[in-house]
Specification:
With about 625 residues, the protein is an alpha/beta fold. It has 21 helices and 18 strands. Strand 17 and strand 18 form a beta hairpin. Keywords: ATP-binding, Coiled coil, Nucleotide-binding, Repeat.
Length: about 625
């Protein structure tokens, strides 16, 4: 259990957390959300002891083992499989001690250490580390390659694998999906769902938060509020609260106006002076309810070029790759105005190669690339952030593109991307990754493309900016090709998918859930092929196997009944709780002293319902996990 008790923190004179009281139960998977700069990463530093709170405390369960991603990996010359296994220092210490005992011929000590090694799951450690790395996109031959062979994004994956390998009761993950493709993200999602400890996860990927988390911790103007459920549930609950809060604010403003009017009229009259003073004190005591800022700070459009061509761009019998090494062959595709395409495919299959070839940045090995007469191409990729002039400001970047544009037009345009006031004159070198990504997108939008090629455009963007980009893409009138691990963006922005796999680019007939199943089937086929290429499998007694499977299904029956019963109970309890909380929304419950007993009764009942709901959720979860374990056994048989 983690408890924040009257926790307060400020950085550089800016309050980030003010008097937070939050309790996170063991086993919770908590998504942490809030605008960039709200204090999410600082909260992790508090938990790690790297910062000291200005007020209050953080209490933990005794002996809590904590795993978090280090900023950098130093062991550049070591194979990545060894780097991952370094995540378990106790295991490494036993390995070193075993080596010493062997060299000394101390059989008694060696036997004792083998017991410790077994207790630390040492005999499965290497295979566990391999599974983590391969799940995150590495191939078997790469596991023995040194860390220095890999780029920064792939080193981040090694770092993530090392963190997942660490024995832990509490795991802190800060934007773990950055630098992952969709395949690796789907794998990580399933791994985290099965993680048995407490998870605190900072992410701007709403679908990822929905799939993994059962609570959301929201940074709300300095306060920390814990919500039950995934991100979509939080979003609905938050919207309802905002509407209620706004109605309460309007009501309070009307009351304030009445009091101020009374004071203005009667404070000079002797007969009314005491009443006027009383109302002045009431006015001073009245709690301010700030107007809710429900709208996103980012609101922009993606204008389309006035002229277009049909087709905009085509590849004919193209061979794509590097030097003489072909990655994709016989690529024939045509991009027409208004087409909206999402690129899917396994890691390393050639999605980014296809995008670069479409832009013309990468020459074709063979075949033709044909541009339409009026093609205006807008291209976003992570390397473009590095191409920004770090000495120039956002204003200067736009001005270089359009020297004749008015200052006010540039100000208005950049304001939609979150650059307001003096920010538009700040040097880009001082910007965060998210700010640079916003600027790169703004430069594309300014040039009014009719074809957008976007390679992981949401990396470094927070939830508000991702939502603004999603809305802008939905309204964009030109053609779009997107590579992204953000499923919400893909679902809202594209009409069709192309699959890049096995050296080909083909239309994918299905949605993202179909793609998940396609990946699973592909992996199963590959595993079967690997198994068949090895030693012959032992003969299986099919009759005995069928009997064992039938017995297993019979044992699953009561678990299914328990799960279904718990689910029905959860629905009924949630319905009662919703009705009760609606009753608690009545303002007179708190202001009318005659309803005090009713208020206490409702609050007590609310506590009972929440306790029962927690118990039902745990019963459902236990049954579901047991059923999954049985299902895995059936699949294996």
């Amino acid at each position: 259990m983690i408890a924040f008790r009257q926790l307060a923190l400020q950085r550089g004179g800016t309050p980030l957390i003010t008097s937070a009281d939050v309790r996170i139960n063991d086993g919770s998977r908590v998504g942490i959300v809030g605008p960039n700069g709200a204090g999410k990463s600082s909260l992790f530093k508090l938990l790690l002891g790297e910062l000291t709170p200005d007020q209050g405390s953080i209490d933990y369960t005794n002996g809590l083992r904590m795993a978090h991603m280090a900023q950098e990996l130093d062991a550049l010359d070591r194979p990545i499989i060894e780097v991952v296994m370094d995540g378990d220092p106790a295991l490494r210490e036993v390995e070193r001690s075993l080596e010493v005992a062997r060299e000394a011929g101390d059989n008694h000590r060696e036997a004792e250490l083998h017991g410790h090694f077994d207790a630390l799951d040492g005999y499965t450690a290497r295979s566990r580390a391999e599974q983590l790395l391969m799940g995150l996109g590495f191939t078997q031959p790469q596991l023995r390659a040194p860390l220095s062979d890999f780029s920064g994004g792939w080193r981040m994956r090694v770092n993530l694998a090392k963190t997942l390998f660490m024995p832990s009761d509490l795991m802190l993950l800060d934007e773990p999906t950055n630098h992952l493709d969709l395949d690796a993200l789907l794998w990580l999602e399933q791994w985290l769902v099965r993680y048995e400890g407490t998870l605190l996860l900072i992410s701007h990927d709403r679908d990822f938060l929905d799939a993994v988390c059962n609570h959301i911790l929201h940074f709300d103007h300095g306060t920390l509020v814990l919500y039950r459920g995934g991100y979509s549930t939080f979003e609905r609950t938050r919207a309802e609260q905002i509407a209620q809060r706004e109605a309460q604010r309007v009501k309070q403003e009307a009351r304030r106006a009445e009091i101020e009017q009374f004071v203005a009229r009667f404070k000079a009259k002797a007969t009314k002076a005491r009443q006027a003073q009383s109302r002045l004190k009431m006015l001073e005591r009245m709690e301010d309810i700030a107007a809710t800022r429900a709208d996103s700070p980012f609101q922009f459009t993606l204008p389309c070029a006035d002229k277009t061509s049909h087709p905009l761009l085509a590849l004919d019998h193209a061979e794509l790759g590097y030097a003489d090494t072909a990655i994709l062959s016989q690529v024939r595709l045509t991009l027409a105005p208004g087409q909206r395409i999402g690129l899917l495919g396994p890691n390393g299959a050639g999605k980014s190669t296809l995008i670069k070839s479409l832009t013309g940045d990468q020459a074709l090995i063979n075949g033709k690339r044909v541009e339409g007469e009026h093609l205006v191409l807008g291209y976003f990729a992570q390397h473009q952030l590095e191409a920004l002039d770090i000495k120039a400001s956002p204003f200067m970047h736009i001005q270089r593109l359009s020297p004749g544009a008015s200052d006010q037009d540039i100000r208005n345009f950049l304001g939609g991307f979150g650059f307001k006031g003096d920010d538009i004159f700040s040097e880009v070198g001082k910007f965060s990754g998210g700010e640079k990504a916003r600027l790169a997108l703004s430069l594309i939008a300014w040039q009014r493309p009719n074809l957008l090629l976007l390679d992981e455009p949401t990396n470094h963007l927070d939830l508000d900016m991702r939502e603004a980009l999603t809305e802008a893409l939905a309204a964009f009138e030109g053609a779009v090709v997107i590579v992204s691990h953000d499923r919400h963006l893909l679902n809202a922005s594209v009409d069709e998918f192309w699959c890049v796999a096995d050296g080909r680019v083909t239309a994918f007939d299905g949605n993202l859930e179909d793609y998940r199943q396609w990946l699973k089937q592909r992996e199963m086929t590959r595993s079967t092929a690997d198994a068949s290429s090895g030693a012959a499998e032992p003969r299986v007694d099919k009759k005995a196997a069928r009997k064992a499977a039938a017995e297993l299904r019979e044992r699953m029956r009561p678990l299914r009944n328990t799960r279904d019963k718990a689910e029905k109970t959860m629905v009924a309890l949630q319905k009662d709780l919703d009705a009760l909380e609606q009753s608690l929304g009545d303002d007179t419950l708190y202001t009318d002293s005659r309803r005090k007993d009713e208020l206490n009764r409702l609050l007590a009942r609310q506590g009972e319902l929440k306790t029962q709901l927690d118990a039902s959720e745990q019963a459902w979860l236990d049954a579901e996990e047991a059923l999954e374990a049985y299902a895995d056994t059936l699949d294996a048989s």
